[in-house]
């Protein structure tokens, strides 16, 4: 007996006199009116949802200084891309499948990529195109040419402006927004972050300026003025009002990820605003939240947001980008992937290669919808909203269950038995987010068995289950706030690929490569790409002076992407000659395990920064860079201002060889690299945590050095 016959035998007796099993057309008669479940998205938000993916472009003076956050005192003459081509930039992003571009028109350093009338700290004062260039105009024109939407990011914080922190700056900031909103065509998005206030140049003052983030910008007025000029643009920030930050820069939305959201301020009685809200709540949103503020997942294709030469080997692989896609777009959020141009003004070849591979995987994923041609039926159907509408994948046509159906379900009978492992569902979100719980069943051996389950659906959800071969699939809606509706049920096959090998190392410099069972790993240690002539990995090997390991797997006719890992100088012979021991052993800072921490939070209380760790490296090392790994689970004790010293005898240290800040380490707590202006040959290292993000103690997960 088929699954459909079993279903009929079970349902018909219960439904006699109440309803019949509704096929795709539903019953005759006019469409019934369906009340939306509030809140619902605006027309601009609906257009944003339909984009699914767009690209961030971080490109400014930081590209030429190697910083993530400029201090504001950088000279405009530094900005001089040698081969900037907006057409090549935008065409590359369009070819990768992105539907829009968000350009960092001004970052925290205050340098403007357009010839603004508000400051001379802009491209007008740079040698690029003899001061006649306009990056914003070039990119916006290229977007129009290649059919992509254009958006802008204008940092609220300006470390260059002498007026920052005063009411005069708000007037300047709004004039900058007006220039962007009136001079470059339609905007689909205006992007605002919460990095506001702190140390800066401020026209030469070189001081720390603090603001009340909840009131200083008068955001409601600022955004209202912007909306008058660009009514179709959605506004992104920690608190929306149209799109919210997902709460991390790691590339994932939570699940469930509700499109509704109620921002919660850090302090009761204050107004939620960018930088002063419990942003972690944005990961999942708020079930039955007060506002429709869906999530954007913003993440970089590299460890940092701006291009850095030493990160060319650390570009995300196509397979990792596909994982990000499922963890963002597949959970109902939109993906905003940062792709930063290099100093020539072009997207680096490593990034292009990864984007092309990502597009190939998406093409393979969406090459065949196994639900196409299926027969759709439902446990009940509201007049005019037949089950067949879930097959056309259009948000404007949809199935709705009858209002009295307490156990609604929808079944697809496929034209042939098919093998798949991904299901994609969507609600007509113009009616609100209605479903709260569901399960997916597949027919095996004549009966329906559980295959996947979930909670939120919203704009879309993509679930990857075990590969299954069947000709019937059933979606059962177990919980809902209003009569449930679906506008898409589609079935896909996850692309087949070989994962890149993992590269790990210990404090002895012993490197271990790991890949799928049966795969052959080829590797290099000189920075070149592994190929047919590269050695085959057989057992762990030692890099006595550190270096860069690149590895790729091959097997079953496939070849993986390349994994690259920078291996620091072995710390086997390192000894601590000075450092706080009351709380934990300083040796944990270089034990090769980032899960163990040296910290200064002693039983008797926090021991405040600055705190120094003095290390005898066992031999004279020609140090080119110092590595600092923060803890991954919390911002408490995470160093954001540092100093590095070297000594030949462990007694005389002299001036710092490097000092500065770890910009954006709160939102992006990845391995930090401090490149020295010139290599220093020394036996002794002193690392000082001068200031921390939270708390009054210092934490180091791992320290390391790279040799020239």
Report on the structure:
There is one protein chain. The protein has an 8-stranded parallel β-barrel with strand order 2-3-4-5-8-9-12-13, surrounded by 5 helices. Strands 29, 30, 33, 34, 35, 36, 37 and 38 form an 8-stranded mixed β-sheet that branches. Strands 1, 14, 16, 17, 18, 19 and 21 form a 7-stranded antiparallel β-sheet that branches. It is built from 9 helices and 38 strands. β26 (547-555) and β27 form a beta hairpin. α6 (167-183) packs parallel to α7 (219-229). With 708 residues, the protein is an alpha+beta fold. The model is unreliable at 7-28 (pLDDT under 50).
Structural category is alpha+beta
Q: Mean pLDDT score, rounded?
A: 94
What is the β-strand count? 38
* Multimeric state: single chain
Gyration radius, in Å: 28 Å
Shape: globular
Instruction: Please report which band the strand proportion falls in: under 5%, 5-15%, 15-25%, 25-35%, 35-45% or over 45%.
Output: 25-35%
Which stretches of 5+ consecutive residues score pLDDT under 50?
A: 7-28
| Largest β sheet strand count, sense and barrel closure | 8 strands, parallel, barrel
Distance between the termini: 72 Å
């Amino acid at each position: 007996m088929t699954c459909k016959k079993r279903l009929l035998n079970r349902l018909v007796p219960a439904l006699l006199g109440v309803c019949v099993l509704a096929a795709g057309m539903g019953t005759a008669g006019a469409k019934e009116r369906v009340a939306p479940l509030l809140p619902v998205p605006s027309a601009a938000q609906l257009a944003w949802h339909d984009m699914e993916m767009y690209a961030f472009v971080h490109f400014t003076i930081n590209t030429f200084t190697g910083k993530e956050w400029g201090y504001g005192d950088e000279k405009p003459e530094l900005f001089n891309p040698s081969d900037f081509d907006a057409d090549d930039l935008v065409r590359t992003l369009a070819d990768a499948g992105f539907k829009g571009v968000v350009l960092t028109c001004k970052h925290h350093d205050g340098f403007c990529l357009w010839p603004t009338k508000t400051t001379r700290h802009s491209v007008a004062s740079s040698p690029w195109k003899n001061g006649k260039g306009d990056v914003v105009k070039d990119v916006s024109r290229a977007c129009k040419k290649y059919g992509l939407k254009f958006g802008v990011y204008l940092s609220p914080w300006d470390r260059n402006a002498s007026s920052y922190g005063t009411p005069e700056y708000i007037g300047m900031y709004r004039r900058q927004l007006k220039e962007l909103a009136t001079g470059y065509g339609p905007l689909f998005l205006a992007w605002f972050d919460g990095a506001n206030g702190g140390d800066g140049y401020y026209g030469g003052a070189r001081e720390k300026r603090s603001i009340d983030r909840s009131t200083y910008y008068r955001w409601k007025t600022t955004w209202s003025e912007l909306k008058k000029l660009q009514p179709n643009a959605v506004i992104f920030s920690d608190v929306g009002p149209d799109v919210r930050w997902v709460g991390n820069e790691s590339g994932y939305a939570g699940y469930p990820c509700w499109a509704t959201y109620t921002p919660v301020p850090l302090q009761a009685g204050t107004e939620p605003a960018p930088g002063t809200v419990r942003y972690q709540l944005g990961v999942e949103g708020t079930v039955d939240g007060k506002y429709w503020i869906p999530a954007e997942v913003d993440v970089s294709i590299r460890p940092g947001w701006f291009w850095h030469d030493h990160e060319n080997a650390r570009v995300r692989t196509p397979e990792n980008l596909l994982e990000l896609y499922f963890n963002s777009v597949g959970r109902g959020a939109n993906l905003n992937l940062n792709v930063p141009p290099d100093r020539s003004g072009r997207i680096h070849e490593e990034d292009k290669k990864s984007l092309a591979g990502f597009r190939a995987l998406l093409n393979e994923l969406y090459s065949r919808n196994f639900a196409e041609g299926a027969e759709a039926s439902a446990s009940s159907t509201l007049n005019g909203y037949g089950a067949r509408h879930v097959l056309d994948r259009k948000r404007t046509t949809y199935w709705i269950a009858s209002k009295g159906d307490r156990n609604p379900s929808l079944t697809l009978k496929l034209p042939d038995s098919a093998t798949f492992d991904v299901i994609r569902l969507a609600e007509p979100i113009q009616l609100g987010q209605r479903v709260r719980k569901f399960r997916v069943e597949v027919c095996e051996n004549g009966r329906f068995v559980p295959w996947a389950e979930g909670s939120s659906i919203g704009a879309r959800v993509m679930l990857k289950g075990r590969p299954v071969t069947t000709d019937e699939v059933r979606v059962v809606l177990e919980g809902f706030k209003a009569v449930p509706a679906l506008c898409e049920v589609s079935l896909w096959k996850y692309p087949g690929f070989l994962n890149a090998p993992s590269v790990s190392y210990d404090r002895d410099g012993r490197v271990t490569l790991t890949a799928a069972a049966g795969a052959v790993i080829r590797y290099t240690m000189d920075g070149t790409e592994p190929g047919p002539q590269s050695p085959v990995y057989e057992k762990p090997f030692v890099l006595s002076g550190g270096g860069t390991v690149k590895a790729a797997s091959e097997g079953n006719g496939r070849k993986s992407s390349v994994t690259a890992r920078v291996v620091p100088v072995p710390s086997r012979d390192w000894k601590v000659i000075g450092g706080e021991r009351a709380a934990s052993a300083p040796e944990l800072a270089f034990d090769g395990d980032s899960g163990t921490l040296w910290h200064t939070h002693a039983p008797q209380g926090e021991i405040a920064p600055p705190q120094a760790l003095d290390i005898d490296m066992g031999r004279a090392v020609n140090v080119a860079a110092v590595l600092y790994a923060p803890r991954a689970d919390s911002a408490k004790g995470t160093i954001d201002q540092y100093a590095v010293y070297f000594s030949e005898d462990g007694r005389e240290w002299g001036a710092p060889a490097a000092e500065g800040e770890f910009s954006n380490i709160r939102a992006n707590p990845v391995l930090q690299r401090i490149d020295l202006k010139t290599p220093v040959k020394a036996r002794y290292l002193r690392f000082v945590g001068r200031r921390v993000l939270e708390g009054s103690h210092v934490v180091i997960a791992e320290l390391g050095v790279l040799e020239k």
